[in-house]
Amino acid sequence: xxxxxxxxxxxxxxxxxxxxxxxxxxxxxxxxxxxxxxxxxxxxxxxxxxxxxxxxxxxxxxxxxxxxxxxxxxxxxxxxxxxxxxxxxxxxxxxxxxxxxxxxxxxxxxxxxxxxxxxxxxxxxxxxxxxxxxxxxxxxxxxxxxxxxxxxxxxxxxxxxxxxxxxxxxxxxxxxxxxxxxxxxxxxxxxxxxxxxxxxxxxxxxxxxxxxxxxxxxxxxxxxxxxxxxxxxxxxxxxxxxxxxxxxxxxxxxxxxxxxxxxxxxxxxxxxxxxxxxxxxxxxxxxxxxxxxxxxxxxxxxxxxxxxxxxxxxxxxxxxxxxxxxxxxxxxxxxxxxxxxxxxxxxxxxxxxxxxxxxxxxxxxxxxxxxxxxxxxxxxxxxxxxxxxxxxxxxxxxxxxxxxxxxxxxxxxxxxxxxxxxxxxxxxxxxxxxxxxxxxxxxxxxxxxxxxxxxxxxxxxxxxxxxxxxxxxxxxxxxxxxxxxxxxxxxxxxxxxxxxxxxx
Length: 504
Description:
This protein has helices at residues 6-10, 21-31, 61-73, 81-87, 99-106, 154-164, 196-208, 217-224, 241-249, 278-281, 284-314, 321-331, 338-358, 361-381, 387-401, 406-426, 428-444, 493-496, and strands spanning 38-45, 48-55, 93-96, 110-115, 121-125, 170-177, 183-190, 236-238, 253-257, 263-266, 446-447, 450-451. The protein is α+β, with helices and mostly antiparallel strands. The chain has three domains: 6-125, no CATH class; 154-268, no CATH class; 282-451, no CATH class.
């Protein structure tokens, strides 16, 4: 239900006020619910009354007094709305006489200045941003490269983007989303690099949204993603300005949301979630090594525990005889089947992880370390589990934490549980069934209409140097083909591999 009645909506095409202050107050109050912080302030200049209307907690009081009230007190003897707009020292000024526009701007932190018996007033953008200054990134920590992160202010975030990309072709499109609580959203892309189809798809999905409010960019990404049922994230969210910068230069599109410290990047493939901007700041061989480590770690995280369950349940013959003796001794006092044992420890690990994330930082770290050691040792001594499974569960947990993206790490931990169950029911056949099912599912998933498994499928070997490994910069001549960039060239080919000379 809209907050405006049909009778009130019928007035949208009329003038915003009744030419005198008291009548204007009544019209405003009929469109806004009871709000004790709605201030009607009257300034008198040469026996003429000027009304300043604003929400006390939304505006910057210092700017209001210095840039609006003080100039109004020094108005000439004869003045009108035109004179007021010239005198008020505010950059964002809009002249209007539409009541609905006044109401919408007031709740966004604007002040409305109206001279009695005039035909229109002016809206002044004096919102108190109330946001923190850029700080060190928390969820995407880096060893090399800039440590600065986005904030909750969309204007500051856009400033960070423009300071990183001083390109006149950087385009910014603004949208307002939400029928009740409007939220500013800005689409950013480099015009001659980004694929127009990607931009149009983003633009269309934003325009098609019909919701009452958008709380955060993570909520918006769920509303505009291709498939809401898959566990794998299709749109990347980041708090790092340099990650957005690299993505825009590669031909991707970004989406900034007001009051959200993260930015949406699309199209985002499965491989993008295992890439870190730190790989770019390091030498190519080091960056490639770290990426390979991440892929191996994720592979172990998904399949190591199910393999343990399958081997102990159905495939004893694949265990070396030397290991079989120690494994039998370790499990001699465990009364549970391997699948129940694995589920129990995986559940305990998830409890420790969630508790550590919710507690204060220092307490959470202490609780995670002490809790893991105490519970693990106590479980072995009590005969609930074996020492070998403790090691395997720890390796699987560490593997899921190597993913730079928190969303993909959580997805990996979730898919591990059904694979463990299938391994306990059908052994190696169950693992292969789940693995093939997951591959088929990933082949069907799309991100902004693009293949999710690119550049593996469809096969584009030219993009492997951006995803599976990192090539030296002189070989990164073209932008990733998967993004379909307009300007595909990054470095002139005749200069990319030119041998460096020594100045004698």
